[in-house]
Amino acid sequence: MTRALYIGRFQPYHNGHQAVLSWIATQCDEIVIGVGSAQLSHEPDNPFTAGERVLMITRALESLGTPIYVIPIEDIMRNALWVAHVRSMSPPFDRVYSGNPLVMRLFSEAMIEVETPALYERQVLSGTEIRRRMLEGEDWEDLVPGAVVEVLQEIDGVGRMKQITRNDCDPSDYGKKSESGRNHHGF
User: Cβ distance 87 to 81 under 8 Å?
Assistant: First the structure.
């Protein structure tokens, strides 16, 4: 039996991740998906919580047909210890799939087999581009699986991103009501 690790931030999970994981499912018997930077949320580059990202991934992969284990992994800010940290949080795995040069290097130094999957439409399918489109009101829904669109609607992901990226010094925002009926000062 082969169990692979695939790690990313998934901010948000998108069709590129889906394509890579569908391919990994043809190579391995089980997949461990590490949700990196799990401690981060409600920031412009990391708007979604670990739990929300777990929900996106599990719903999008329901029909994959390969057992998956989705594990939140917090950053420890010590690269020399990071692989041991990941191993301590994860079921055992035989190989790692990643295109991230640092991740590849750290696992290789730990004598773990690393493979680089082909990236799928990387210029468009990136969390950065999808978040940009969400903020600008451009089409983004076709870049993520339908299940992820549903999760993002459920949590008001676009509304959250617009609110957390707003400048609190902008006088035109003062007194505006949010979806909850309160202004951004809590009144």
Answer: no
Closest CA to 91 of 114, 70, 63: 70
Contact 61, 21 (CB under 8 A): yes
Strand order from edge to edge, sheet including 68-72: 68-72, 30-35, 3-8, 95-97, 113-115
Percent of the chain at pLDDT above 90? 82
For 27-85, what is each residue's pLDDT tens digit?
999 999 999 999 999 999 999 999 999 999 999 999 999 999 999 999 999 999 999 99
What span, in angstroms and rounded, lies between the C-alpha atoms of 149 and 12? 10
Distance separating alpha carbons of residues 78 and 83, to the nearest angstrom: 10
DSSP lists the bridge partners of residue 30 as: 3
- CA pair distance 6, 24, nearest whole angstrom: 9
Question: CA of 40: how far to CAs of 10, 67, 68, 75, 163, in Å?
Answer: 12, 26, 23, 9, 17
Q: One-letter amino acid identity for 50?
A: A
Domains of the chain listed by start with CATH number: 1-166 (3.40.50.620)
Q: Which amino acid is at 39?
A: Q
Please give the span between the terminal C-alpha atoms of the chain, in angstroms, as a whole number: 57
